[in-house]
Structures are given as structure tokens and as C-alpha cells.
Amino acid sequence: MTPVMAVPDVTPQTTTVASATNINHHIYSTHKTLTAPPFLPDKPPPTGITLCGFEGPEKLLEIWFSAPSRSESPDSGLGSGPPSPRQSVSTIYEENWYIETGLRVVPKHVWDDMLAIVKAQVLSSVHNEYADAYLLSESSMFIYPRKLILKTCGTTTLLHAVPRILDIAREYCGFHHVDHIFYSRKAFLFPDKQVWPHGKWGDEVVYLDYLFPSSQYNTAGYVVGKVNGDHWCCYLASPITQSDCDENPEPIPPSWSDSDSEKDSEEKVDSFQDDLTLEIMMTGIDKDAAKVFWRNNNEVEDDKSGNAEQRVYNETGLADIYPTSKVDHHVFDPCGYSLNGLMGPYYWTVHVTPEEHCSYASFETSAPVRRFYPDAASAHTSEGHDVYNTFEDVISRVVTSFQPAQFCVSLFTRKSISMQHKRNVLQGRIPGFDRRDCIRHESGKWQVQYAKYEARKDEKIL
After folding, report:
1. Which CATH number characterizes residue 147's domain?
2. Whether residues 239 and 319 fall in one domain
3. pLDDT score of 72 more than 50
4. Which of 221, 254, 287 is the last residue of a domain?
5. How many structural domains are present in the chain?
6. Kind and range of the H or E element at 438?
7. Is residue 362 within 8 Å of 146, Cβ to Cβ?
8. Is the dihedral of CA 81, 87, 93, 95 positive or negative?
9. Which of 61, 76, 85, 402 is the most exposed place for a label (fewest CB within 10 A)?
10. So which residues are the catalytic ones?
């Protein structure tokens, strides 16, 4: 088994962010001093609504935990020896429930306390045998046995909650080891309204590097796209393994290039166990499309009938994207929309800010496509769910509902998947749009692709 490093115990220390050049002032701040986490601000954060508008682009955090050993379980007695021959399978399962359900056993009030740090609240939830999906006042949270996905918009303080999330995983699940950490966000519309360390990418990287030190983790933070234009920021961290130490006497950050080592090319991943995240971030939403996401005169905020939600779901065509999924959604007052959907082990989520001066919509899913994940797609189809052939098919279907002036796409996959298909990922055409940027980076066994699209003038998307 490949060894992994323990989650760091965070102790007070002081770190100074290096001075930044003027050209990158919107990415880095200057001479900011860190103290003990959670580095909370001296005053409350501003509300999500400002004189400028609402900050729709979300901060996205995904943390994977390694399964605990018996000696690391919340009940140390479970690690005292092998099960008795007289124990039934059901008894063994019940005594090892935390291994099977992991983060899903954490009580809701514990998540509520964590979300209070983020400045978000649970509105509702939906569940299936694989995951719990929480619809938040500011976006979404998905809980899998060994994976947490937290996505928040506005001026939420997502990164402040990372130490608490790690504590919860240790206390309730016996998760002492982090497997992977992903944090990303699109360029903010109103970065000056964010609460430190959010708002300037350099500060966010320094904050995360403090929590996941280079002595234990391979970390890398990147700006993907045009620094002087629309771009996407991404941070990855994974534990330093023994193989890393054997190959490199000095730990180094993951390499982000197009070159592949012989070892990388030989990596094989069962498509059933592969992981992907497709995110579509849209701005300049069509006025007619945006109108649907406002409550009408008959839909008051305290209406429990769900009429507003069902109207938006049907009129926008969102109901046709993954029609067999279990959906939880909410229309805000006076406008705005959030949706969580579960379909077997996969999820999808949509968030919309329809105001014209700051219009934004996001779509995210972990669902496989037939071309690159034939085994997983076949299994998903056999369970009665619809499967798209390519990622371009998914993207084309989503943008039809919003008619954006421009959008960018980020796609996380294992590197082996793109290599098996000769890197022909996100190379197809999106009707009605021209691709302006297409950037591919690699980090360890992961590959991320970023693409920027602009709508063709006077061409309506059908």
C-alpha cells in the first residue's frame, strides 16, 4: 500500500506573502501576515449583494480522504484484533459502519456549524444510496463516504472552514489522511468585495500552502487562461508518497506540461473508479433566458408548493438534461436559482444569478460520457439513466438553456483517460460558439483542461 501523510496539525506561526508586481495586483496582495488559523477577519464579511451586484462565480473545494485503518477508527476497540468467527456478516458490517459510510455519518448539526464559518446555511437536502446533497443559501454541498464537495458563491468564506472540515473527518470518521485536495474558482466579478484570503489568488494559495505544507504535500496553484482577461484559478495538493521521495530527493511541485513519462503512459485506471468534474461557467446570460429565473407575482418567497421551482425547471429545459435524476431546487426572492441533482453515484448542480449587470450561471457534473467512459456509461444506462456521447454534447445541451454571450469550461479527468483517447477531449465544436482558448495542464495522475468560448454574433443557439 502506498503510504500517505497525515493531515497536518495546524499550529500558530507567521508567514508573509511576497510583494507582488503591479501588473498582477488583482491576483496577489502585498505583505499580508498570517496568524493562527482560521485567520478570521476582525469584522464580519460583507453581504453577497453589493452596490456592484451579486458575486455569482463560485469557490469550489473538493477533498478526498483515504479510508482509515482499524487502529485509526473512531472506536479504537475495533482495531484490537480480527473479528470472531461467530460474528455474522451483518454484525461485522454494523461494527464497521464508519468505514462503509464515512462522512455520511456526520450529524447534520455538525455540518451546520461548519457552514456557519463559511457564512452559508442549509436550505434543503436530497439523498440516495451513494451521497447526500445539501442545497445551500449560497450554492451546494455534496457528501460522499470519502469525498466532500463544497461550492459557495457571494462573499462566503469557504477556505476558513477547511481546518474544521479536517477536524470533523478525524473526529467522526477516523479519517487521518487526506488523499487529494482541489480548490478552484473563476475570476471574480467583484474581487475587492471578498474577505481575505479570498479575492486575490496569491493569498488563497498561501493560505492553502500553510494548511498543507510542502514537507508533507505536493502542492501547486495556477492561473489558467488570460491573466489580463477572463481566467480560472486552480490549486491541487496530494500527499508526498514514498515513490515521490525515491524519485526526487527534494520534494517538488507537480509538473504541469504536455510531456509524459514512460511511467505516466503506463498508468491504467478502471473506468468504473475514475473521477471527473465538468464545470461550465457562463456570463452574459440572454435577457429572455434570464427572465425565467425571477419569481412572478404569484410566487411569493414563503410558498411551499414548489410551483416556482417546477416552472423554472420545465421552462428552461433543465428538466431534460438529466431527466431521471432526483432533484432538489430553489428559486430565491426576488430572483436566482439553485439545483442539486443525484443520479446513482453521480451528481449535477446548477446555480443562476440572472441580474443583467452581473448575470452568471454555472453547471457542474461528475456524470460520465460514453466516448471516454464506456464501462461506467453502460452501467449508468443499465440503471435507467441517460448518458451523453461526448462532453461537447453535454455542454451544447446546457448552454441552450442560458444562451450566454461567453462561457468557459474546466474539465478534470485522470491523465490516463485523455491519453487513451489521444487527447481528443474538448476538441469538438459547440454550435453557435467559437473557441478562443484551449489550455491543457497535467499534475501527477490528473489532467485539467480549460476552454473559453464566445457566442457568434446574431446566431441564436437552438
Report:
1. 3.60.90.10
2. no
3. yes
4. 254
5. 2
6. strand 433-443
7. no
8. negative
9. 85
10. 55, 58, 139, 153, 338, 351
